[in-house]
Design a protein that fits this description.
This protein is α+β, with helices and mostly antiparallel strands and 190 residues long. It has two domains: 43 residues; 104 residues, no CATH class. 57% of the residues lie in helices and 27% in strands. The longest helix has 33 residues. The chain is extended. It starts with a helix and ends with a helix.
């Protein structure tokens, strides 16, 4: 009788271990899927971020209004991507801390501009005082495939120190455009 009870317990333990393994794999799959978003999901994240950032409380909007707004945002994003040649390939956002007047979110972006790829990781600190909302970018980390270009390394270091994403994207667009011209020129002479 003692051996049969042990066998029952061992079978139950094995069953639970298999279930834990299956649930762990499912969790990892979900986590992996959540870090890769399509363009539509990026647009929705941008819309959500903008409405959170601006503190808009427009109430309930009708479905046609939302569709029109989404189409407008898609057109704006398409224009900006063509104008700057910056293509975002993935985005993830995780809320790290949320209190009544303070929110900290961790963002990860990756994409490319012409033939240069980049990855950004930063925290967005959003503080609200009465009716004023202020945001600050902290812990900015930039990874670029720049080869051995010292100027790009210096630029990335300055960007990380200042936390200035707008300057980063402006400079990236300009640099990547000329980098692409130089690359094509050298290919032409090879």
């Amino acid at each position: 009788m003692d051996n049969s009870m042990c066998q029952v317990y061992e079978d139950e333990i094995q069953s639970l271990e298999e279930e834990i393994k299956l649930l762990t794999e499912q969790y990892e799959d979900i986590q992996q899927e959540s870090t890769f978003y399509s363009e539509e999901e990026i647009l929705m994240a941008i819309k959500s971020f903008q409405s959170d950032f601006q503190g808009e409380s427009k109430g309930h909007e009708s479905l046609p209004d939302l569709k029109a707004q989404l189409e407008s945002l898609e057109a704006d994003l398409s224009f900006l991507m063509k104008f700057t040649s910056i293509q975002f390939t993935s985005h993830s956002k995780k809320t790290v801390e949320r209190t009544r007047n303070r929110t900290v979110q961790k963002h990860r972006l990756s994409g490319n501009c012409y033939s240069l790829s980049f990855q950004l990781e930063f925290q967005l600190l959003e503080m609200q005082d009465k009716e004023k909302v202020s945001t600050v970018i902290t812990d900015l980390s930039v990874v670029m495939e720049s080869g051995e270009d010292v100027n790009v390394s210096k630029f990335v270091s300055r960007t990380e120190e200042r936390g200035d994403l707008l300057a980063f994207f402006r400079s990236l667009s300009s640099y990547a455009e000329w980098f692409e011209h130089r690359r094509r020129t050298f290919l032409h002479f090879k």
